[in-house]
C-alpha cells in the first residue's frame, strides 16, 4: 500500500482539527485502525473509506482513490483490508470450517468454490477471482515465511467440492505442503464439539505492527485489531487446536479421505 493515501488521510484529519480517536469515533472505527491506515500498513475496506469520507466531508475522494482498486474488485468488499495483511504477515494461523483456506486452494478447487457463488457470476468473472486467489497464495513460494498453520474441520475435507477428483487433488496438495514442512496441518475430527464452530478465523502476526485477526461468516467478515479481542481469539484458536488430531494422525486421515473420494 502506498503511504501517499495514508499521508493524505492524516493531512485531512489534522486540517479538520481531529485526533485519531475523534476521527475513529465519527467513522465508527478503532483508533488503531486509523493509525495503521495513516502509517501505510493497512488498506481500508470500501465501507471504511466511505465512512472516512463522510466523517471528513471529503466527498468520495477516499473511496475513489482506494489503493489497489483494480485488483481489489476481485475480492469481497469485507476481505479487501485483509489481503495486504496476509502478504505482510510473518505468521498466519488459519481455521477452516467448510472450505479449505484460500491460501491453500488448488486452481480446480478454487474454480469450484467461486463458481458456486450466489448470485451466480459469469465464467470470466469467476476466472478473474480465481487468478486473484492464486496470486495471493504465491506468498507460500517463499520456503520459510510466512509460517502457516492450518486447522481444518474434517467436514471441509469430506464434502465434495467440484468433483471427487478435485477433492482428491486438493487434499493431496495439503498433504504435500505438510510433508515437506511448508505448513502444519491439523484436522478437527467430526465427533468433536469445539470453540470456533461459528465461522472461519485467520490470525496474523507481523514484524513491525501488532497482531490482528479476521473472522468470517455468511456474507460478512470483520478485521479485529483491538488487543483484547485479538488475544481472546488467539486463546480460542489455541483451545480448539488442543481438540484436533496431531499432525501425523492428521496426515494419515487426509490420505485416507483423499482415497475415499476416488473410491466408487
UniProtKB/TrEMBL annotation:
One of this protein's Pfam families, by short name?
HTH_31
List the InterPro entries.
Answer: Cro/C1-type_HTH, DUF5753, Lambda_DNA-bd_dom_sf
Question: In Gene Ontology terms, what is one molecular function of this protein?
Answer: DNA binding
**Domain HTH cro/C1-type, first and last residues per copy:** 9-62
Q: Which PROSITE patterns match?
A: HTH_CROC1
What is this protein identified as? Answer: Helix-turn-helix transcriptional regulator
**Species this protein is from:** Streptomyces sedi
Amino acid at each position: 500500500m502506498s503511504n501517499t493515501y495514508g499521508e493524505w488521510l492524516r493531512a485531512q484529519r489534522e486540517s479538520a482539527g481531529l485526533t485519531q480517536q475523534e476521527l475513529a469515533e465519527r467513522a465508527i472505527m478503532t483508533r488503531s485502525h486509523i493509525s495503521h491506515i495513516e502509517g501505510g500498513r493497512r488498506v481500508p475496506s470500501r465501507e471504511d473509506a466511505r465512512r472516512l469520507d463522510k466523517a471528513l466531508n471529503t466527498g468520495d475522494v477516499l473511496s475513489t482513490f482506494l489503493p489497489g482498486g483494480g485488483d481489489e474488485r476481485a475480492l469481497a468488499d469485507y476481505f479487501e483490508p485483509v489481503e495486504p495483511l496476509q502478504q505482510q504477515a510473518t505468521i498466519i494461523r488459519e481455521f477452516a470450517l467448510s472450505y479449505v483456506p484460500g491460501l491453500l486452494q488448488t486452481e480446480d478447487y478454487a474454480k469450484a468454490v467461486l463458481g458456486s457463488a450466489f448470485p451466480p457470476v459469469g465464467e470470466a468473472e469467476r476466472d478473474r477471482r480465481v487468478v486473484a486467489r492464486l496470486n495471493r497464495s504465491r506468498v507460500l513460494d517463499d520456503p520459510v515465511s510466512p509460517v502457516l498453520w492450518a486447522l481444518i474441520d474434517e467436514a471441509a475435507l469430506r464434502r465434495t467440492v467440484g468433483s471427487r477428483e478435485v477433492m482428491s487433488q486438493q487434499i493431496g496438495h495439503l498433504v504435500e505442503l505438510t510433508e515437506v514442512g511448508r505448513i502444519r496441518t491439523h484436522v478437527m475430527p467430526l465427533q468433536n464439539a469445539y470453540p470456533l464452530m461459528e465461522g472461519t478465523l485467520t490470525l496474523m502476526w507481523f514484524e513491525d505492527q501488532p497482531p490482528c485477526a479476521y473472522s468470517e461468516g455468511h456474507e460478512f467478515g470483520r478485521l479485529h485489531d483491538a488487543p483484547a479481542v485479538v488475544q481472546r481469539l488467539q486463546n480460542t484458536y489455541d483451545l480448539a487446536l488442543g481438540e484436533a488430531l496431531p499432525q501425523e494422525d492428521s496426515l494419515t486421515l487426509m490420505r485416507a479421505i483423499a482415497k475415499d473420494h476416488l473410491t466408487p
